[in-house]
């Protein structure tokens, strides 16, 4: 899941139920009679259309206002959602979900047909879903997405209103995690058809079947509300009545709002961490997420030069970035796939795939590669723009990266910081020279990261391409899909190729520093999904 550099609200493998400490806001001080929270996100959301959702903040909202077949739960597990239970065939290719009698917010039933419609819509080419690739293991999905087959041929079937059968191309043990993600949410056909291209562009142009209903979002405003959904099947166990969510880009503004009682939660930047690290309200959450630099190799032959890319990778001092610039618990990466996310035979994937030169700082070596690359490309100097979001953290990161890159002789770099939503759009359309990107795990498997940089993946914004890498990723998902060790080795080798070739430049592994107020209990941080789970939260 794409997110801004300041987005530190999820990841895989570290899960914790949070008991918030400190002084309550006015809303929380009023006690359980109101059951209200005031929450902060560092950037605006972009859409409530599950088929077109790509950013973390939209996904967090969708996971609160809607529900898929299953819900992510602590300890890398799943809980029942719309599906009260499920079964998997012996060959691992057929998944059957038995649905409960749940309702949309208008009182109409949520049925298996709503899932069939949603999934077919997502893989239909005209929808232009960037997440269509995640459906590739469902029978015929890739052919449909390529325009070679009718969406009706997708391997998902409604057996009556309350049984959904899914046919996979190959066994996929982590499919249970995938159906808990926003892309697999049901969609109400009548609502989609009613609003057409405006579907999901504001809170009134969507349908909800989750614990909360979205209110007062116009599509561009900074503040909106989530209110308890009385039609939710498990509403009796949802204690919160309202969550007011504010997009606050400036850390000082957010902190002031927290201190004045207007926010119950806020993220902190590195400067603020120094002030609050000994406060009982201070929390740090490590994430399975990686921030990285992408170079537009489609537009510029210069960036297709391997020596140039290796020079750029080696000139960035990641320790200084993590420890001095961010100073919020973020760490230097071991590679692209974050550590503590996936293990095999007792070994962490990040350790198995570690390639020193892919994440090291060596200025002297960087200048040698740069000189060689400049000679090969016939350049004496070059000028490029570095694109990133306009929040405070993103600005600091881009300024630091700019300062590092300009250590290379003749490399002129200009920062351009724009709204996160605009940055996403430009990244997707290759309207950039260099861009700072980030990915947070949707499910606990290295494929969630490695799939992104196959040649034709929609999220491969820089369009790096390597045939051997593509072949290994494909092999891990086909020939070796049923051989756990062989599949693991395929993915390890693929990551090493990505790092050796410096197809992307990993910068740091995210961590979140935050302040969380008292009077609130039971909020769960679910790193295996890009969400905070408020369904078990309450205000004293």
Low-confidence stretches: 3-32
Shape: globular
Q: What kind of sheet is the major sheet? A: 6 strands, mixed
Q: Portion of residues in helices? A: 25-40%
What is the strand tally?
Answer: 23
β-strand percent reads 15-25%
Distance between the termini: 34 Å
Strand order of the largest sheet: 12-19-13-18-16-17
- Mean pLDDT figure: 90
Number of helices: 17
**Cα gyration radius (Å):** 23 Å
Structural class based on helices, strands and sheet pairing: alpha+beta
Describe this protein with a few key phrases.
6-stranded mixed sheet, disordered N terminus, 540 residues, globular, 28% helix, alpha+beta
Question: Summarize this, please?
Answer:
The chain is of the alpha+beta class and 540 residues long. It has helices at residues 26-29, 56-65, 112-123, 141-145, 175-178, 189-195, 251-259, 270-276, 306-314, 318-326, 349-352, 363-377, 392-405, 420-428, 447-450, 467-476, 484-500; strands at residues 16-18, 36-41, 70-73, 77-80, 83-88, 94-99, 156-158, 163-167, 212-215, 223-228, 242-247, 265-267, 282-295, 343-344, 347-348, 382-389, 411-418, 434-440, 505-516, 520-521, 523-526, 531-533, 538-539.
Tell me what the structure shows.
With 540 residues, the protein is of the alpha+beta class. 28% of the residues lie in helices and 22% in strands. The protein contains 17 helices and 23 strands. The chain has helices at residues 26-29, 56-65, 112-123, 141-145, 175-178, 189-195, 251-259, 270-276, 306-314, 318-326, 349-352, 363-377, 392-405, 420-428, 447-450, 467-476, 484-500; strands at residues 16-18, 36-41, 70-73, 77-80, 83-88, 94-99, 156-158, 163-167, 212-215, 223-228, 242-247, 265-267, 282-295, 343-344, 347-348, 382-389, 411-418, 434-440, 505-516, 520-521, 523-526, 531-533, 538-539. Strands 12-19-13-18-16-17 form a six-stranded mixed sheet, with helices on both faces. It has a four-stranded mixed sheet with strand order 2-11-10-9, with helices on one face. It has a four-stranded antiparallel sheet with strand order 5-6-8-7, covered by helices on one side. Strand 5 and strand 6 (94-99) form a beta hairpin. Helix 9 (306-314) runs antiparallel to helix 12 (363-377). The model is unreliable at 3-32 (pLDDT under 50).
């Amino acid at each position: 899941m794409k997110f801004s550099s300041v987005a530190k609200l999820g990841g895989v493998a570290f899960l914790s139920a949070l008991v918030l400490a400190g002084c309550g806001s006015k809303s929380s001080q009023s006690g359980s009679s109101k059951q209200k929270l005031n929450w902060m996100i560092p950037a605006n959301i972009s859409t409530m259309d599950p088929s077109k959702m790509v950013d973390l903040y939209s996904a967090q909202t969708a996971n609160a206002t809607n529900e898929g077949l299953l819900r992510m739960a602590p300890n890398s597990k799943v809980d029942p959602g719309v599906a009260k239970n499920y079964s998997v065939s012996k060959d691992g290719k057929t998944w059957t979900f038995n649905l409960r009698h749940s309702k949309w917010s208008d009182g109409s039933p949520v049925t298996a047909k709503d899932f069939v419609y949603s999934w077919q819509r997502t893989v239909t080419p005209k929808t232009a879903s960037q997440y269509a690739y995640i459906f590739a293991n469902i029978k015929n999905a890739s052919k449909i997405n390529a325009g070679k087959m009718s969406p009706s041929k997708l391997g998902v079937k409604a057996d009556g209103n309350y049984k959904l059968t899914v046919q996979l191309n190959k066994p996929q043990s982590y499919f249970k995690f995938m159906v808990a993600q926003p892309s697999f949410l049901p969609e109400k056909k009548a609502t989609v058809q009613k609003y057409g291209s405006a579907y999901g562009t504001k809170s009134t142009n969507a349908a909800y079947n989750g614990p909360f209903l979205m209110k007062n979002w116009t599509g561009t405003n900074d503040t909106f509300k989530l209110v308890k959904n009385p039609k939710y099947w498990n509403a009796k166990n949802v204690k919160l009545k309202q969550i007011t969510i504010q997009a606050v880009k400036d850390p000082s503004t957010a902190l002031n709002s927290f201190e004045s009682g207007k926010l119950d939660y806020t993220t902190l930047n590195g400067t603020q961490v120094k002030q609050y690290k000994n406060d009982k309200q201070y929390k740090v959450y490590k994430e399975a997420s990686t921030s990285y630099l992408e170079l537009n190799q489609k537009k510029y032959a210069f960036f297709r030069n391997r020596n140039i890319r290796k020079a750029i990778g080696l000139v960035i001092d990641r320790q200084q970035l993590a420890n001095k610039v961010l100073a919020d618990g973020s760490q230097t990466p071991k590679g692209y796939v974050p550590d503590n996310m996936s293990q095999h035979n007792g070994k962490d994937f990040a350790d198995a795939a570690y390639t020193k030169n892919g994440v090291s700082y060596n200025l002297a070596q960087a200048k040698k590669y740069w000189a060689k690359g400049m000679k090969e490309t016939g350049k004496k100097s070059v000028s490029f723009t570095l694109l990133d979001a306009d929040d405070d953290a993103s600005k600091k990161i881009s300024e630091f990266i700019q300062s590092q890159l300009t250590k290379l002789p003749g490399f002129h770099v200009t920062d351009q910081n724009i709204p996160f939503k605009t940055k996403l759009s430009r990244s997707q359309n290759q309207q950039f020279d260099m861009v700072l990107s980030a990915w947070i795990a949707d499910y606990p498997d290295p494929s969630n990261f490695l799939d992104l940089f196959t040649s034709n993946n929609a999220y491969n914004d820089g369009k790096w391409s390597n045939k051997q890498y593509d072949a290994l990723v494909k092999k891990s998902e086909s020939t070796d899909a049923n051989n756990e060790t062989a599949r693991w080795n395929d993915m390890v080798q693929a990551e090493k190729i990505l790092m050796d070739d410096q197809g992307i430049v990993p910068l740091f592994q995210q961590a979140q520093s935050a302040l969380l107020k008292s009077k609130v209990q039971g909020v769960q941080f679910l790193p295996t999904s890009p969400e905070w789970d408020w369904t078990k939260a309450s205000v004293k």
